[in-house]
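Hi F.,

I've been meaning to write this up properly since the lab meeting, where we talked about keeping a consistent format for the predictions we share between groups. The idea is simple: the sequence comes first, exactly as it goes in, then the structure tokens exactly as they come out, then a line or two of notes. No screenshots and no reformatting. I'm using this chain as the first example so we have something concrete to point to.
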Amino acid sequence: MLPNHMPVEREKSKQNIVVLIPTRNREPKYLNATVLSVGRQAQMHHHSVEIVVSDSSSPAFFEKNSKLLDKLKRTLPTVSIQHYAPSSAKPLQDLRELANKAQRIALDHLIPNDGHWGANRNALALLGVFHGGESSAYLHLDDDSPLFKPGDPDWKIERTDEDVLGAFLKGLQKAKGQGKKGFAGWIFGLPGSIVSAQIGEKYEKAKTLMQKLYEGRVFYSGALPAGPARILSFEGMQIPYAPYGIGEDNLHHQAIGGLSFNVHPGESAAKVFHMGWSGFTPTTKQVAEKTVSHKFRKEWRELVKQIAQMGKK
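Output, unedited:
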């Protein structure tokens, strides 16, 4: 909760931020840390924020996440939190009913039932635009990438006075000034190639690294074109992710012509902390498609515009 002396009511920032968080079969403590950090930032610095979670978990994990997010809605009453299973999300079902044949084929290709991270991010993009429309900024996080560093192994989140969300908005404005569609902030913590390992020697190494992260040591940092630290314009949302394999975030960042943060992070830097050390890993089609075909990109652009209009009704 916010400190008692902090005013809750105050004019919010003019640009709405839709925060996009995909998740799949992880313990809810990851998602809790990330959503809570975003909500506290929104309240502390008076940002207008909507959080959209696309949850492709099994029924058991989905239920756990649903209970968690219901609790967070009570903790963060001024922040809109939406929770969807992409396979049954009503906005996506309604979009499919309105789509023409070519658009339905594009949806089947870009959001396949057996897709990996890119497929979930595509579903999440449409759901986010349904809520945010054409005028919002879209911040892409992971379910294990809060805006604050975890304070201890119990996953408590340290309070920070830095306006991280404001820094992302400034970065996006800088990118737009250079004709870019997106901005990549800084990522601290543990690299995914280590933290996603679940068995054997790498698993033990990951646990050791995680403990040292709690102790305040940073193992890597940089302006990386990765998923959990990017903010896009509406135009950037009109370019789809490759639905299969790994490396889809880097490829998408290249496709939108995104701008990386090229100043060493200091006060009020645009940054996230990557904390997870286990999770789902694709087992087929390991390498993401290098490009999404022009015909699917064209249909995707129209689908994004259409669902933005649906959200206004």
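Notes:
The beta strands are 17-23, 49-55, 80-84, 137-140, 182-184, 186-189, 220-223, 230-232, 259-260, 271-274.
Residues 1-11, 193-203, 217-223 have pLDDT under 50 and may be disordered.

If this format works for you, I'll send the rest the same way.

G.
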